[in-house]
Request: fold
Amino acid sequence: MGTMKCRSYGQFCGLAHALELVGERWALLVVRDLVLGPKRFTDLRRGLPRIPTNILSVRLKELEAGGVVRRRLLARPAAGVVYELTEYGMELEDVLLRLGLWGAKSLGSPLPVDIVTTDSLILALRATFRPEAAGEVRAGYELRLGDIVVHARVDRGCMDAGAGPLTEPDLVIETGPAIRALLAGELSPDEAVESGSVRLTGDPAHLARFVEVFHIAPAPACAPA
Amino acid sequence: MGTMKCRSYGQFCGLAHALELVGERWALLVVRDLVLGPKRFTDLRRGLPRIPTNILSVRLKELEAGGVVRRRLLARPAAGVVYELTEYGMELEDVLLRLGLWGAKSLGSPLPVDIVTTDSLILALRATFRPEAAGEVRAGYELRLGDIVVHARVDRGCMDAGAGPLTEPDLVIETGPAIRALLAGELSPDEAVESGSVRLTGDPAHLARFVEVFHIAPAPACAPA
DNA sequence: CTGGATCCCTCACGATACTG
DNA sequence: CAGTATCGTGAGGGATCCAG
Reply:
């Protein structure tokens, strides 16, 4: 008798429906990792180490049923299965980046358990990129956090971020969680370099431009825990 | 022993953190209702009839701890408590509207249990409004769904939506769930009126402009359940 | 009446182990 | 490699109760 039919929010509302599609725990993080391209089950696991495999399995089915994700069988060689976003799912990218940017404003220090993944870092570069601040900038940056290496090529208002190193980067930025404070303007480039929380290879002047182009606006005077 | 520390996603990532702040079940719907202004506990219950009161209580505490919501004591008269978004919480409006618009694209027919609330309808008007399509339009619309009555005043690129009727509206639109198909272009204004799923008071020509100005882009060829 | 707190039940989540 | 099976726990859900 507690057996109410379903887990619907009971509202005829776009937002409520969106949350039924991608609002379950882990769902949006799965979408996040698929924004950068099709992935295998195991790749998804690698990007989300704390997701139980059964939950990943269920989420993928739900997302597929919701028209957000498509399951595709790979042809030989390298046979297998990949999951990819549908066109409809792709349309979440913008929302996802904005939500991530919003969350980044109040992101504190990472717990020891927290990891950074290549995908999340690439998405962070996309989310923080400000075309209007990239006026005449043309530069290639290589970013290293722990053993994660990604790169960003800025060409005026266009930016392209990807995994791996860059040949002939203008600047190599080797850092850690301090990257967030740096992008948020809570840590000046000079301070960052002096304190050793950021190490550079290349002209340090590029770093000033980097933090202009990739930016996290400060959160408006709220002190979360 | 099963007592793993917390419900963290274990990622140092803006999106993961955002989901820890507002990703729990019901949380974003609570934020939705607060976007339109401070509300009492009971007002929130009315807007979210299916939320258990203990969950609402917990969510409000969590949102408060996360710096998204602020609890404020009302002065006399009408003493009591209201919950309101912080500045940081307000910044979610844009994401919320976009996510709602995305969800609206694949919104099917309402289940018998589904309700529409005044707030969600006002937010839907905000989300679907296209300033660029409102070029020279100046009009006042009154929208009635069941016993819900809201209005929208369009003045060139500006729009203001609110609860209740309008004095001297250019058009009164009385309808039901068909409003979604109408805004999505799946139902033409003429069809809607002919089939009786929409009733008008005022010049029917206004309806054509209405569906231009308030619009849900079609979902890209995906057939969800 | 508002503004919750409390109880209890159930199911979804999460950890682990196991299979095609 | 790509998931399914199993099973314990705790969050969600519904009803009721209580204080101001």
User: Anything to note?
Assistant: DSSP finds ten helices and seven strands in chain B. Chain B has a mean pLDDT of 93. Residues 2-3, 7, 24-26, 50-55, 58 of chain B lie near DNA strand D (CB under 10 Å from a C1').
